[in-house]
Amino acid sequence: MTRQYTAEQLIEAIPALTPDRLLSYVHLSILSPVQTDAGPAYREIDIKRVTLLCELTDDLDLDDNALVIVMSLLDQLHGTRARLDTVMRVLSDEPPEIKGRIAGRLID
Amino acid sequence: MADDPYAALGVSKTADTAEIKKAYRRIARTAHPDLHPDDPTAEARFKAASAAYDLLKDPEQRARFDRGEIDAQGAERAPRGYYRDAAGGRDDTYSTRGFGGRQAGPDIDPDDIFAQFSRRGARGNPFEGFGGFGGDARGGRFDMPGQDRHYTLQLSFLDAVRGTRTRITLPEGGDLAVTIPEGAADGLTLRLRGKGGPGLGDGPPGDAYVTLSVADDPVFSRDGDDIRVGLDIAIDEAVLGAKVPVPTIDGEVNVTVPPGASSGQTLRLRGRGVSRRGGGRGDQLVELRIVSPATIDDDLKQFMERWRREHAHDPRQRQDRKRKAKP
């Protein structure tokens, strides 16, 4: 279990974050707190994500629509990268002849 | 002092050393408290400017500030960390990074796994596989599949192990029923087909992905399919053996502590662990811990003194033998 933060602690930790803004990010489904019996909770990864969201909002002037699209693309990119990492890790455990054959096909 | 030394001096971030010096001198001239004894704000302005100048006049310090390594006071700043450091990792519940995992079932068709990774797969390009931008775009018709939604749900240890039905709150209001399968592990992601955002036109709705976060339990912990608990026993129970109640995930059961039990000894309760996929259950492992009475009364003390005189016993001898046996 990683450390968790309440909405108040999150707002405290991120200077650019306001309660309204937090609500808006959650409504747009680009931020998803952990649902606990004690209400919504945020993790370290959410602090970093909200920091990024605030910077996209303030520094790049992205509106809600653009923010949703950018985050969707970013999440797809990270998902794809993680899957590719998994594939590479699995392949690296294969015997040399299989690795050689696959490497050969890749540069074809 | 202000957090932005450039603002304190009224210069741009690209100002060169000469400009910075000039700006500082101008403020020093107009704000030095000794030159403006009747201006109450002068001291604050002068202090801010001289602190800013101290930082910026040294090119090396200035570069470190620009890189965010130190703050305006010159104090080391913790590296801020970027989203990409955490994205795609274990806690990233926003991206879809698995290959179907638990949902794939025991008979996995390799082509299904590869299809998830290919552009033609269902999860790849949302515009492929159902007619793309269907209909006549000029006629105002536009089909697009709904967004996938990602949720994280925290569960108690017992709810996760036993399985349960619960609901998650949706950001737009309302809720969604989720069935937690028996034996759900921390980090498991459930896919609820068609429970994501609504599609446009004839586009199908997206899927909802619910990642489980299992809270620690004060009594139970999990080791694969096995459940671990610690069990405190009294000295007499350890020596003589006993039947002692022990909590399991199904409720209390009695366990037989064998005579001559030691701390650290583990008893196995078969079939009392977590349900396995495809049937069967793991075991519960009960680790014994001998606990002395809070106060040692005279009876116990006298008995132990007599026992020690007549039955000397050194449990460390065994340890020593083991150590010597090792090269």
From TrEMBL, chain A:
Q: Which domain of life is it from?
A: Bacteria
Protein name, UniProt field: Chaperone modulatory protein CbpM
From TrEMBL, chain B:
Q: What keywords are annotated for this sequence in UniProt?
A: DNA-binding, Metal-binding, Repeat, Zinc, Zinc-finger
Basic and acidic residues compositional bias: what residue ranges? 77-94, 307-318
One Gene Ontology cellular component annotation?
A: cytoplasm
The segments labelled Disordered in the record are 71-109, 260-280, 307-327
All residue ranges annotated as the J domain in the record: 4-69
Query: What residue ranges carry the coiled-coil annotation?
Result: none
State the InterPro entries in the record: DnaJ_C (IPR002939), DnaJ_domain (IPR001623), DnaJ_domain_CS (IPR018253), HSP40/DnaJ_pept-bd (IPR008971), J_dom_sf (IPR036869)
Instruction: Please identify the protein, giving its name as recorded.
Output: Curved DNA-binding protein
The gene behind this protein is cbpA
